[in-house]
């Protein structure tokens, strides 16, 4: 058996600082929103949006943010490779699933009623 390769996560001090700045900007945006309640809703929302946008921008400049962007691009590329069924195929498969569910429901109902009849009427002799 071959040993799987070891994955090392390297996080630089600058990257940690970017993540800390992103978190502080997000918290600052919430604090500014509630702290500026006397200034009016326009100032509140503007400060919230600006600080949240700055926090998101700081996050996306870090390695974690860049890897998230790369993951998103890879996901979009993989979704483009998927061969989606036609409308007719999708409707047929949906019909098969519904038919199977109905058949299983009838089967389970019949099984339940049969067991009920065997246990209560034949074995225990309880008549309803």
UniProtKB/TrEMBL annotation:
Gene Ontology terms: biological process: intracellular protein transmembrane transport; protein secretion; protein targeting; protein transport by the Sec complex
Keyword Magnesium applies: no
Gene3D superfamilies: Preprotein translocase secy subunit
Chief location of this protein within or outside the cell: membrane
InterPro entries, alphabetized: SecE_bac, SecE_sf, Translocase_SecE/Sec61-g
MF terms (GO), sorted A to Z: protein transmembrane transporter activity
Location(s) in or outside the cell: Membrane
GO cellular component: plasma membrane
TM stretches of this protein: 19-36, 42-60, 90-110
Keywords: Cell membrane, Membrane, Protein transport, Translocation, Transmembrane, Transmembrane helix, Transport
Function comment: Essential subunit of the Sec protein translocation channel SecYEG. Clamps together the 2 halves of SecY. May contact the channel plug during translocation.
HAMAP family per the UniProt record, alphabetical: SecE (MF_00422)
PANTHER family: PROTEIN TRANSLOCASE SUBUNIT SECE (PTHR33910)
Oligomeric form and interacting partners: Component of the Sec protein translocase complex. Heterotrimer consisting of SecY, SecE and SecG subunits. The heterotrimers can form oligomers, although 1 heterotrimer is thought to be able to translocate proteins. Interacts with the ribosome. Interacts with SecDF, and other proteins may be involved. Interacts with SecA.
Family: Belongs to the SecE/SEC61-gamma family.
Protein name in UniProt: Protein translocase subunit SecE
Taxonomic source organism: Roseateles puraquae
């Amino acid at each position: 058996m071959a040993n799987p390769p070891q994955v090392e996560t390297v996080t630089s001090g600058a990257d940690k600082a970017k993540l800390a700045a992103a978190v502080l900007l997000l918290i600052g945006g919430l604090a500014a929103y509630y702290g500026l309640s006397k200034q009016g809703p326009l100032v509140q929302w503007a400060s919230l949006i600006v600080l949240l946008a700055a926090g998101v921008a700081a996050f996306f400049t870090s390695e974690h943010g860049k890897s998230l962007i790369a993951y998103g691009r890879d996901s979009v590329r993989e979704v483009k490779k998927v061969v989606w069924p036609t409308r007719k195929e999708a409707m047929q498969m949906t019909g098969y699933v519904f038919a199977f569910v109905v058949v299983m429901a009838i089967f389970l109902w019949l099984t339940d009623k049969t067991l009920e009849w065997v246990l209560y009427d034949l074995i225990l002799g309880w008549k309803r």
